[in-house]
Amino acid sequence: MRAIAISDFGADPELIETPEPEPRPGELLVRLRAAGYNPVDTKIASGAMKDRMSPRFPLIMGQDGAGVVAAVGAEVTGFRPGDEVYGRFADPSRGLGSFAEYAVVAQDGPVAFMPKGMLPEQAAAVPTATATARDLVEAARLEEGQTVLIVGATGGVGQSATQLAALRGAHVIATAAPGADEIMRALGAAETVDHTKGGVADQVLAGHPDGIDAVLDLVTPPAAVDSVAALVRPGGVICSTIHALDPEALAAREIRGVNVVNQVTGPILAELADVIDSGELRVRVESLVPLEHAPTLLREIAARSARGKTVITM
Ligand SMILES: NC(=O)c1ccc[n+]([C@@H]2O[C@H](COP(=O)([O-])OP(=O)(O)OC[C@H]3O[C@@H](n4cnc5c(N)ncnc54)[C@H](OP(=O)(O)O)[C@@H]3O)[C@@H](O)[C@H]2O)c1
């Protein structure tokens, strides 16, 4: 099968030919039609997370994917060949990931039936980003009428978080570079602020001089996060996906600080599929890239602006 792999941490991604993986007992072999890119994919490849993993090289990149069950291992009961599924298909200890024509996942792992109204190219964009958005909104305990700022709202996590926060009845302020504000309003943002003009906190404070209830922050590094946290009223909450917060220091100011680590499980993916099928949540695929062009994409992607998800097609 064809796959995109790295030969070591820091090496350039390459298109390789490699044997199809064998499903072990309890596993599904899935013929992937599409794989969703997430920033963690390039972080892993760079070696930034090497203290937390011992992969086998060559390591096939990617986590998220969608396709059709091609075969099942012994003891699989919940899925059959031909089922359309989506989920996370990474097993670095076996050198396996989702930027490949075939991948495996445990039947009780992060896999579920695809949302019925979606194509694999759309479903592959969902797992990591939308599950993380769900975690953020849960961790913030957002309620109707609260005002929440989402920093990094135009990306994969942020677009889902904007919709899920608005679904809870929150007043959403979304960061958006010029040209992206209409997209964010269509997804449920009540206001947008242009982060490329600088001073997101000042722009928000101008319209909300008494502060706001919550911040969901996907991009602000530890050295700069205090200016954003200062917007939150005592009793409020700030959540970060990049571990930028010092919860103890925030607690001293009566602000709850949560460094969110996502949970992507089969039941959560099944729940998200239901929300998508109900029409309440959209996932916007910004670009589709054929597998053979993925190495070029992956070399350039850190410098690109995200207005939704990038999906690799097989
Ligand atoms: N903790 C976890 O479990 C977890 C899970 C998922 C993701 N993450 C992390 O969360 C982050 C976001 O993930 P993602 O998938 O949403 O990334 P993404 O799709 O690349 O989106 C990032 C967005 O942030 C915007 N942005 C960049 N700098 C900004 C700034 N200074 N102010 C406001 N917006 C800014 C970008 O738009 P422009 O380019 O137009 O500025 C882009 O739309 C990544 O670092 C990812 O690794 C963590």
TrEMBL record:
Database matches in InterPro entries: ADH-like_N, ER, GroES-like_sf, NAD(P)-bd_dom_sf, Zinc-ADH_QOR/CCCR
EC top class, as a word: oxidoreductase
Segments of this protein annotated with the region Disordered: 1-24
Signal peptide coordinates: none
Keyword NADP appears in the UniProt entry: yes
GO MF entries: oxidoreductase activity
Keywords on record: NADP, Oxidoreductase
CDD domains: MDR_like_2
Residue ranges annotated for the Enoyl reductase (ER) domain, each copy included: 10-312
EC number: 1.-.-.-
Protein name: NADP-dependent oxidoreductase
